[in-house]
Amino acid sequence: MNEKSCFTIVTPLDPAAQKLARDKKAQLSLRATIWSQAAERLKPLLGRTCSCFSPAMRPFGMPMYLPYGVVLGGVDAQQFLLCYLFAREQQEKEIDARNQDIRSCGMLLGQFHVDKDTAFTVSAFRSDNPELKSHIELALRFFSDDITAAASLYYLGFESNYITEQQEQEIMSNLGANALCVAELQPLEGKP
C-alpha cells in the first residue's frame, strides 16, 4: 500500500478571521471554515494526484492535535512554524527530485569551471523523449501555478506554488494573518 503524503496550503486570514482566531469559542468553527476553503482548492488533485484527501491527523508524522488539520498562526505560532518548515523542506526535496528526473533524461556533454566558485554543465536532450516531455509538462504547470503540479505546498494568498523570500518574510513577520491547512493525500493506486 502506498504511504500518504502531506499537502500544505498557506491561507491568509482577513481581519474578521484574525479576530475570530483570538476568540477561543470561535476557533473551532473558524478551523472548519478554513478546511472547507482548502478542500475546495484541493479538489483538482482528485484523480490526478490522489484518490482522496482528509485533514492531517499527524502532520509530517508529528504528534500534534490539529482540529480540521488547521494551524492558526496567531494562536499556534510554534505549531505553525514547525509545520511550515516541514512543508518547505518537503517542497524543496520534491523540487530537487523533479530536477533530477529531468536531468536523468539528458546526456551530459561536459562540465566547465569558469572559476573556483562557478561551474556550468552542458547536457543534450532528445525532444522526442516521452518521459522528458512528461517532466517538462509538470514543470510548466508548476511555474504557471497550477495546484495539481504543486510540490506539496501552495500559497493561497499569492495563488502560487512557490514564493519569493520577500513574500515568505511577509508571512513569517505576521503569523496572525495566516493559517496553515495540512491535508493527507492518499496516492492513486499504482503511483508512488
Percent in helix: 25-40%
Q: What ranges have pLDDT less than 50 throughout 5 or more consecutive residues? A: none
* Sequence of secondary-structure elements: EHHEEHEEHEHE
Q: What is the strand content?
A: 15-25%
Can you tell me the overall shape? globular
What is the count of distinct domains? 1
Radius of gyration: 19 Å
Main sheet overview: 5 strands, mixed
Q: Could you say which structural class the secondary elements and strand pairing correspond to?
A: alpha+beta
Précis, in short:
This protein is of the alpha+beta class and 192 residues long. It is 40% helix and 24% strand. The protein has one domain (5-103, 147-187).
Describe this structure in words.
This protein is of the alpha+beta class. It has one domain (5-103, 147-187). The chain is built from five helices and seven strands; from the N terminus they run βααββαββαβαβ. The chain has helices at 15-21, 24-42, 77-104, 130-143, 165-172, and strands at 5-12, 50-55, 70-72, 107-115, 118-124, 153-155, 178-187. The strands form two sheets. Strands 1, 2, 3, 6 and 7 form a five-stranded mixed β-sheet that branches. The termini are close together. The model has no long low-confidence stretch (mean pLDDT 91).
